Amino acid sequence: MQVQCPKHKDSQFLYIWSKENEVKFICDQCHSDLIRLKQVQSQNLINIRKAYQNPEYLFSEITNSEILQEFFFELNQCEEKNLNHQIMEIEKFIKEVQNQLIVMQQELYVYKKKYMELRLQIREKLEEIIKFDQFKKCISNLNQLEKTINPQDITQSERDVYNYFQDSILKKQVSLNNQIFTILNYKNQYTRESRINYPEWNKLDQLYKQLNEMHTSFNIMINPKFPGTIQNTSLLAREFQAKLIDIIVKKSNKPITKIELIHQECYSNLNAETFWNKVDGKDNLLIVFQSEKENIFGAYSPCQWVKSQRGQYVSDETLTSFLFSQTNNQIYPIKKDFRGYAIYCCLQYGPVFGGTPLLNRAIYYFQNKSDLHITSNFQIGSSSLGTSYAIEEKQTQPDLEINLFGQNAQKITTYEIFQLSFN
Ligand SMILES: [Zn+2]
């Protein structure tokens, strides 16, 4: 790409400036002028050389999908030469591990030798204490008798051995045992100090841990994080599916293994009874609504839904619950101080998220002001965002009253319930 900028001599086109109704080729100097005049923002500039070589870069500069931008950025981040470098580093390391394996094996021989020495030392002491040579003498005498086979001599030999047992061992058992215990105690202390550590083996263990880390980081490099999807939804757009999954995984800090559509209902069939029968006892539910104005919104909470006649709030100590509006591309996380009011279970209502309980003589009553409240017929709802679920500061209260449903109509036409499973 070597086209001269007609406005600036000796300066070549570097960027494509993407504007609403046209694009312009600009050079470095055009760029500086535009920056000075504050006419261009760097995110609207596409590097020509990079785009020419790299369709992923080109696409991520143009697409409106944040999820795809992130994906292609990540996919492109790691060059082949980096991977080769990483593999070479691992290879070097493997050599080091191989050397260490040999050293570790030598260490085994050293310790074996020490062990054999130890046995010998103990044996020598034992021989001394039990006067072993006397016993040996008895037995060698017997051996010499073998040719003559004189019964009297054999009897004599047996008596000798008996006397040896009696005099050298049995009659002074206590003191003799004590002497041996003393020797063993001394040897035990000595060996404990001198050999337990296996330093070469430990070094090998450390090397292996490092190799494992290198392997893990290589594995991360070659495993791009694909955008998540939710099957069987007629309400959630692909982009927003990926966004929801990303948020849930980050907040829960564990991977999702399964997302199952457990209920889908529209128009005439909407009622709270069916809802409660479907959700009773279940947790990790993602619920998505569509209003008459075709606004799509909903909520995720790890809390367990339970049929309750009198009504009860369920607390979310994990702070993972959130409301969302796909239409406004917004997430509303639960406020820390309001985690006790993540969801409200009461058979007289549909699903309720958030609230400020009314304190009356030490009894908390349900107050009809929640971040999202679906009524008993399951067709009408209300939404006061910012009560227990946080909103961005710039949004004002009147906006929020209609925020989730869209304009004044607060009727629901369709909803879906998904149950998530985690590892
Ligand atoms: Zn120029």
From TrEMBL:
<feature type="domain" description="TLDc">
    <location>
        <begin position="234"/>
        <end position="421"/>
    </location>
</feature>
<dbReference type="Pfam" id="PF07534">
    <property type="entry name" value="TLD"/>
</dbReference>
<dbReference type="InterPro" id="IPR006571">
    <property type="entry name" value="TLDc_dom"/>
</dbReference>
<protein>
    <recommendedName>
        <fullName>TLDc domain-containing protein</fullName>
    </recommendedName>
</protein>
